[in-house]
Design a protein that fits this description.
6 helices; single chain; two-stranded antiparallel ribbon; mainly alpha; 137 residues
Length: 137
Amino acid sequence: MYIHFSSNICKLHKREKKLTKKAKFDAKKEQKKLKLIVSQLPEELEKITEGLVEDAAFMAEQLEKLRAEIKETGWTSEYRNSETQYGTKPSAAGEQYIKLQKLYAANIKQLTDLIPKNAEVSGAAKDIMDFLGSSGK
């Protein structure tokens, strides 16, 4: 039993490495993008948002990995509980993706809501805000 379990762990690690290579997402770049938005905030608020920025970058990275897995395996998976009980169900990756996407959207909204309505946003931060649809606040 232990050998079987450990061989499954090895398979999972190999699969994760394969998916990670396919995704090629850089959380540091995502963090820099988000910090551009946060840099528009007053200094005391900017310090408070560090955790939100780190979480958003992490979630974006995980979403990219899940997206690669969904592309590879699909949104559904087959199951078989017994000879007569079988079918398809939503894949675990798909369910995780949907939940994480909602959390990510809420996180980004929380970050962009901190920017005052009359704040002058310029440069790359303005481009990002326009892309997120928050510039018309």
